[in-house]
Design brief:
The complex is a heterotrimer of chains A (246), B (345) and C (299). Chain A has 246 residues and is α/β, with parallel strands linked by helices. Chain A has helices at 43-51, 73-79, 96-103, 110-123, 125-129, 140-152, 170-185, 197-201, 221-226, 228-245; strands at 3-14, 17-28, 32-36, 58-63, 66-67, 81-84, 158-162, 189-194, 206-211, 214-220. Chain A has a single domain (3-90, 155-245), classed as Rossmann fold (3-Layer(aba) Sandwich), CATH 3.40.50.300. A 6-stranded mixed β-sheet of chain A has the order 6-7-8-3-9-10, sandwiched between helices. Chain A has a 4-stranded antiparallel β-sheet with strand order 2-1-4-5, covered by helices on one side. In chain A, β9 and β10 form a beta hairpin. The longest helix of chain A is centred in the C-terminal third of the chain and has 18 residues, at 228-245. Chain B has helices at residues 2-28, 31-57, 64-79, 82-88, 103-125, 130-150, 152-155, 170-189, 191-201, 203-208, 213-239, 249-262, 267-288, 304-319, 330-344; strands spanning 292-293, 296-297. Helix content of chain B is 74%, strand content 1%. Chain B is built from 15 helices and 2 strands. Chain B has 345 residues and is mostly helical. In chain B, a hairpin with a 2-residue loop joins β1 (292-293) and β2. Chain B has one domain (2-244). Chain C contains 13 helices and 4 strands. In chain C, β2 (130-133) and β3 form a beta hairpin. Classes of the chains: A alpha/beta (246), B mainly alpha (345), C mainly alpha (299). Chains in contact: A-C, B-C. At the B-C interface, α6, α12 and α14 of B face α4, α10 and α13 of C.
Chain lengths: 246, 345, 299
């Protein structure tokens, strides 16, 4: 398996504070990788660095063999990485359709874009029903679906999902994960940042565990799920709650 | 109280420098030089006053010259002899045409009036932040200007108010400048000043720490208005003639350019900026009038001084937004310099 | 009744002019939070482009109009590239002071290289005439200005609703970073915002100059102050607000002109700015705006 995304000893600093220290991470073509860890572990910093939003203090990011560490935010998506940001960040004043159109900003094929919007609508029927509504009138779950659909509009080779289940009701969370499973089955490569470890592990191939800005473990999803130590230390909440519901 | 002493000690060196400037001008200068030096001190007072609010709160203020204008017109109306006022402003309300005070009383009343108007305007303006606050101060400048131009009974409108007896000279101006610097330093070091600076760095953080931003802003605003008013009084009592345009955009730009160049976050920056811009401004003004240099007659170029001010503002904000001195005072730079020397050894 | 209609048209055309300028300010502000005080200089530069073309090339008079609009647009883009880009990530106050600096700079360049005194600029004769609508004689320029304002605003709406860059501009008003994450180039969005603001200022400039018949270096100052008032009235950064604010201000001015006794007429601008101050304090979101929550992209 070739590495599609290859992050080498990446560090991120905010002033004097190191949010991420020398983290290595690889995502292979066609792979689903989960990035786990408690609040403040540096997960979002890593995603922001990949997306070009914050500069790397050390290390670099390679995508499809090319160094993309110093590219501007707007160039990252042109290389094929689409990020669904934490908190969804849909364009509140734009309609659902307009959000999707803007998601395809890098594409020039108007017909293809129109077709993809239709395709998204068939995948997310709820969005079709709200096509002409402003995004701010959507519920949290609908906004999350819109954010994912918007990311897909650029036809990414790698989809980075930052906390897709954050703040959503359990039923909606299930829907989101079903959707992600569908995308996986279509062969899309994904890096999924999650606090909800159990759901993420049940669906990913491999996982990295971050804590206090450092990578404390990496292995297959099964290994992580079976490591009582890791679960007790870093991932306790997520597993415990789902264990109860199961 | 210890802050008072500390601030006084920190004012000593700039004060000595200013007094030496003054002595040099008195000893060697001609009338023209005295005028230039006097205007330098007036501007220094105004810039120090501007720094008190703008530098500490980090809110751009474009309305400060209105306070110089209010104080100047007030002292002009109170101090000009009644005989002259009978022809200048015979219809002045409140019997002002028949009152004549000595210049100290007139100045004190003028400053008190400025402080009161500062307080009233501050009640509204200090509730605003960021761009809205700046537009608010701009509105203040325009309102006061419109009043100067249209309240003909008391200001003579767009025509100049002339004949104010000359009461002050260079020593007064130096004294006022030293006082202004001292007060600005003292406020910056005081706990109110510290809180205001904190709010200037991060409004939300300061508020969550319990800083009552409106209260400290209002204090700074009134203090700033009064100091700038002092500049206006100095101006009126030396020039003898004032007009609405003496306190409008040109002066606003000049003093803001001075503050930006030196660095608005420190009083030392205000002093440095005022000095450099004043010198540069005089130089450019000479060029503007088309001087003869080495036998070559240069053309007159009106607008050169304005160009110079605009260029300072644009270039400094782009390349050195914190000004020459940044956020530090003279003594901080001196300490850093000594530390570097020591490190080299 | 005729008088009323005449004054209404007058108010509409004045309000339209303010709205064009206010929209330009608002569009730039909404995208990069810059209060562009140098907006008025676009009018002056457009005007001087007309003056200099007449001086050196003497083109037909109608050709001066596109020249004015084009130069205003080009100047706006130049301002952005040269002066505002270096302070793009600085706090809004820095941008505002920079804009002030640019404004003084341009005014004085015009003073140095042309003259302080007003210079005559011709506009097509038919713009100065009157026309009859029914049994009403009205100035052509007022009718034209009203129509052009409507057309320009329609065009702006189409741009904002129907084009990719327009969508990006609307979205950037709330969340520029996410717009860039979609692959939209920040520079393109900002350039377009400035170009649009310059275009609208250029259109307004043609009418301002046709009324005055002359240009001078400081001619942009008063109109842009009015545009500011319009923006504050409508809530700064809101496009709908700028439009409404401009029209309200135009109507208010014409109304005050008709109603106010001559002794206090000089204080009109003081009243207007006092109103600005009050709105800023009492209702900072403007007359038509909605309150924003702390944490929204706002000051």
């Amino acid at each position: 398996m070739t590495a599609l995304l290859d992050v080498r000893s990446a560090s991120v600093r905010y002033g004097a504070i190191a949010a991420l220290r020398n983290v290595d991470l690889v995502v292979g073509e066609g792979e689903i990788v989960a990035l786990l860890g408690p609040n403040g572990a540096g997960k979002t910093s890593l995603v922001s660095a990949i997306a070009g939003i914050v500069p790397l203090a050390t290390g670099d990011v390679h995508f499809d063999g090319a160094n993309i560490s110093n590219l501007a935010v707007e160039d990252i998506v042109r290389r094929g990485i689409s990020v669904t940001p934490e908190g969804r960040r849909v364009f509140a004043d734009l309609t659902v359709t307009e959000n999707l159109q803007l998601g395809a900003a890098i594409r020039a094929d108007r017909q293809g874009v129109a077709d993809d919007i239709e395709r998204n609508f068939s995948m997310f029927p709820i969005l079709k029903a709200r096509a002409r509504s402003e995004a701010k009138t959507l519920s949290g779950g609908e906004q999350q679906m819109l954010a994912i659909a918007r990311s897909l509009m650029s036809k990414p080779r790698l989809l980075v999902l930052d906390e897709p289940s954050l703040g959503l009701a359990p039923k909606i969370v299930d829907q989101i994960f079903e959707l992600m499973a569908k995308l996986r089955d279509e062969g899309l490569t994904m890096l999924v940042v999650e606090q909800n470890a159990a759901e993420a592990l049940s669906f990913a191939d491999r996982a990295y565990v971050l804590n206090s800005g450092e990578c404390v473990y990496s292995g297959t999803a099964a290994e992580v799920a079976n490591s009582d130590d890791l679960i007790a230390h870093y991932l306790g909440d997520g597993i415990a709650t789902t264990a109860l519901t199961d | 109280m210890s802050y008072l002493l500390l601030s006084a000690r920190r004012t000593v060196i700039p004060a000595i420098f200013l007094i030496l400037c003054c002595v040099a001008v008195v000893l060697f200068g001609e009338g023209y030089h005295v005028r230039v030096a006097y205007m330098f001190f007036v501007n220094l007072v105004i810039v120090a006053g501007l720094q008190v609010f703008m530098g500490n709160s980090n809110v751009a203020n474009l309305g400060h010259m209105s306070f110089a204008g209010i104080a100047a017109y007030a002292v002009a109306v109170l101090y000009t002899p009644t005989a002259l006022k009978a022809t200048l402003i015979p219809n002045a309300p409140f019997g002002l045409a028949t009152i004549q005070l000595d210049f100290v009383t007139a100045s004190v009343i003028a400053l008190a009036l400025t402080a009161v108007i500062g307080w009233l305007s501050g009640l509204a303006l200090c509730r605003l932040s960021g761009v809205a606050a700046t537009i608010g101060t701009l509105a203040l400048l325009v309102i006061v200007h419109v009043v100067f131009v249209n309240w003909i009974d008391i200001t003579r409108g767009p025509r100049a108010f002339f004949g104010i007896p000359v009461a002050l000279g260079l020593p007064w101006a130096v004294g006022a400048a030293v006082l202004a610097i001292f007060v600005a330093r003292w406020f910056r070091d005081s706990s109110d000043g510290l809180q205001l600076r904190a709010s200037g760095d991060n409004l939300l953080a300061a508020r969550s720490m319990g800083v009552n931003i409106q209260r400290v802003r209002l204090k700074a605003w009134v203090l700033s208005a009064t100091i700038v008013g002092m500049g206006g009084v100095l101006f009126a009592l030396f020039m003898g003639t004032i007009a609405p345009n003496s306190f409008y955009f040109t002066q606003t730009f000049l003093t803001i350019a001075m503050l930006i160049l030196g660095g608005m976050r420190s009083v030392s920056g205000a002093i440095t900026g005022t000095f450099i811009v004043a010198v540069g401004f005089e130089f450019v003004r000479t060029l503007e009038n088309g001087p003869e240099i080495l036998g070559v007659q240069l053309p007159t170029m009106f607008g050169l001084t304005g160009f110079f001010l605009g260029a300072i503002i644009v270039i400094f904000l782009a390349l050195r937004p914190d000004g020459l001195l940044g956020t530090d005072e003279f003594e901080d730079h001196w300490a850093a310099f000594r530390q570097r020397l020591r490190a080299r050894k | 009744m005729d008088y009323f209609l005449q004054q209404s048209l007058n108010a509409l055309s004045v309000g339209g002019e303010y709205a064009l300028l206010a929209l330009g300010l608002a569009i730039v502000f909404s995208v990069i939070r810059l209060v562009n005080f140098a907006h008025g200089e676009l009018i002056a530069l457009g005007g001087y482009a007309m003056y200099l073309s007449v001086l050196f090339a003497a083109p037909p008079v109608y050709a001066l109009i596109p020249i004015c609009i084009f130069v205003a647009m080009l100047s706006a883009v130049c301002f952005e590239r040269v002066a505002f880009r270096p302070v793009r990530n600085a706090p809004p106050t820095t941008g505002l002071l920079t804009a002030f600096g640019v404004s003084i700079l341009v005014q004085n360049i015009l003073v140095i290289f042309v003259a302080t005194r007003p210079k005559p600029v011709p506009t097509p004769d038919w713009m100065g005439g009157t026309m009859s609508i029914g049994d009403l004689d009205v100035p052509v320029v007022q009718v034209l200005e009203t129509i052009v304002t409507v057309v320009a605003i329609t065009g702006l709406l189409l741009l904002l609703r129907k084009t990719q860059i327009g969508l990006a501009m609307r979205a950037a008003a709330k969340d520029f970073v996410t717009v860039r994450m979609m692959g939209v180039r920040a520079n393109r969005v900002i350039m377009t915002a400035f170009a649009v603001s310059g275009l609208l200022a250029g259109i307004a400039a043609v009418f301002i100059i046709s009324r005055r018949g002359a240009v001078d270096p400081f001619m942009g100052f008063i109109p842009v102050l009015k545009a500011f008032v319009a923006c504050v009235l409508g809530g700064f950064g809101s496009l709908a607000g700028a439009l409404v604010g401009g029209l309200v201000l135009g109507c208010a001015e014409v109304f005050l002109q008709v109603v106010l006794p001559s002794q206090v007429a000089g204080f009109r601008d003081a009243f207007v700015f006092l109103m600005v101050g009050l709105i800023l304090v009492m209702k900072p979101e403007g007359l038509v705006g909605k309150k924003v929550e702390l944490g929204d992209k706002d000051e």
